[in-house]
Amino acid sequence: MDLLISLIINGLATGMLIFLLAAGLTLIFGLMDVLNFSHGGLFVWGAYTGVFTYIITESFIVGIMVAILTGMVLGFLMEKLIITPVYGNHVQQILITLGFMLVLQEMIKVVFGPNAIPVKVPDYLAGSWEMGEVIIIKYRIFIIVVGFIVFGVFHYILTHTKIGLIVRAGVMNKEMVQALGINIKKVFLFVFMTGAALAAIGGMLMAPYSGSIYAEMGMEFAILGFIVVVIGGMGSFSGSLLAAILVGLAGSFMAYYIPFLSLAVNMILMAIVLIFRPQGLFRMAKE
Amino acid sequence: MKTSNLVSKYHVLFLIILLFLIAFPFVADSRTLTILFTQIFIFSILAMSYDILLGYTGIVSFGHAMFFGIGAYATAILLNTFEPTIGVFIGSIAVGIVLSGFVSFLVGLLTLRLKSHFFAMLTLAISGLLLVVAEKWRTVTKGNDGFTFRAPDIFKDRIVFYFCVLACLVIVFLILRRFVQSPLGRLLIAVRENEQRTRSLGFKTLHYKVIASVVAGVIASLAGSLYAVSLRFVNTSVMAMDITLDALLMTIIGGVGTLVGPIVGSVVIEFAQHYLSGLARDFPIFERWIIFFGIIYILAVIFFPKGIVGSILQALSKWKSKHEDRKIFALEKDKEHSP
C-alpha cells in the first residue's frame, strides 16, 4: 500500500512537470500551428537562470520569478525572430526551431559551464511527512499542488475570460477571429510567451526535484512533452494534463516494476496512439 | 546545343575534382588530411541519403541516425565475432543494408501516413527508443563504453581505405543521381511540391514515400558501416541525435534538393569543425563551435533556404536568363531595324 502511494506521488509529480512543458506546446500548436522543437531549451533556460538566482539570493520564490521572466523574454525574442519568418511552412518550422534548440542548449554550456549543477530543495520544502508506514516527500506534494494550481488558473482563464475566449476561438479558426477585428498576431505573441514561461517554471521546479541540472535535460524532457502532447491531442489543454499524468504514472510504475521498459513504454504508448488515434486520446475528432 | 554544352562543363568540373581527389593522397603526404577527407566522404554519403528524404521527398526525419547506427553495429559486431577479412566486411555491409532496409520499411509504413510534425516526432521517439535499446543491450553492443575491433588488414593502410570510401561515394552518387532522375525520383519531387495533387493524379504517395525512406535508410547504413571501420571502434554515439543533426546541417547548408549540396555541406562542416576545434586552444569559445553552426543554420533556413549549391544554381540561372533576355532583345531590335 505504502509503495503504491509513493509510486503514485512520484508519478504525479513527474507528470506535473511534464504537463507544464506540454501545456505551452499544445497551446502554441493549437493556436499557431507551430510545433516548437526548442521548447526544451526554454525549459532548461528557466531552470538555469532560476537556480542561478536561487543560489545567489537564497530565495526560491525569486528564483521562480526570474525563471518566468527568462521564459517570457526568450519567448518574445523567439516569436519575433525565429517563428514569424516561417509561419505556414511546416518543414522550415521544424528545422528552425530544432536549430534554435541547439543554440539554446550550447549557450547554456557557454554561460553556466558544461557541468551539472547540484540544487538543494529550499528548507521550508525539504523533508517529508510520515503517516504510519507511508513517507511523503514534501517537495513532490509541492510540485503536484503547483501543477494543479497552474492548471486551475489557466483553465479558468481559458473558459471564463475574454482573452481565453479569443484563444479558444483562435484554436478553432484563426482567420475568423482575425476577421472579427482582433489582432491575432498579438494573441500569438501572448500565447507563445505564456507557453515559454510555463516551460521555464517547469524547468525551475524540476531542478530541486532531480537534485541537479544539466544542459541536455531540455531535450530529454521535450521528448516527454511531445509524447504527452500527442497522446493528449494537439491543442487540447485538459487533454495534456491527463496525458501528462498518464505518462508520469506509467513512467514511475514501469521504473519500479520493469526498469528495462521505463523509457520505452512512453514511446510505445505514443506510437500506438499515433497509429490508431492520430488526433489524440482525449480529443474529439475535430469539433 | 546550348544545354548539352553546359552539362559537359559540369562533367569536366566533376572529373577535375575527382582527379584531384585521386591524386591527393599521393601528392600531399598528410595523414590528418587523408583521414579528414575519408570522414568527409563518409558523411557525404550520409548527407546525400538524408537529402533523398528532406530535399527530394520533403519529409523531415529525426531518426536517420538509427540506420547509420544499424550499419555501424552490423559491421563492428560481425568483424569482431568472425575473422576480420574483406569478405566478412562486405558481408557485414550487406547485413546492415538488409536490416536497415527492413527497419526503414517497417517504420516508414507505420509513420509516413502522418503529417510532417507527427512524423518528425515519431521518428525522434523511435530513434530514441533504439538508442536506449543499444545502451541497455550490453551483451551485444557493450553500451556507451563501446568496443574496438580489428578492421580487415588491407584497410590498415589509410590510403587504401581512402580509395575504398571514395569509390563508395562516387558509386552512391551515380546511383542516387540515376534514382532522382528516374520517373520514380520525379514522383518524389511531385510529392514534395504538392502531395495532395500527386495523390489526386492517382499515385499512392505512401508507397513512394516508403520507397524513399528505404533508399535513404539503406544508404545511411552503408555510411555507418564505413564509419565504424574508419574508427575501428563503435559505441552508442553512432545512434545519437548528433548524427542526425550533422546530416541535417550538412544538407541544409550545402543545399537541399541537390545531390552535390550535401557533399559541399559535409566539406564545409567537417573542415570548419576541424579548424574551429583547433582554434579552441586559443579561444575557448570555439569549443562550443556548434553555436556558430546553429546560428548559421537558422540564418540559412530563413535567408538561404536553398543552401550554398542551390543559391549558386539560382544565381546562375538568373544570370543566364538575363543574358538570354538581352540576346533576344538585341535580336528583336535587329529585326525592327531590318526592313
Automatic annotation (TrEMBL), chain A:
Keywords: Amino-acid transport, Cell membrane, Membrane, Transmembrane, Transmembrane helix, Transport. It holds the Pfam family BPD_transp_2. Its main location: membrane. The keyword Transmembrane applies. CDD domains: TM_PBP1_LivH_like. Belongs to the binding-protein-dependent transport system permease family. LivHM subfamily. This is Branched-chain amino acid ABC transporter permease.
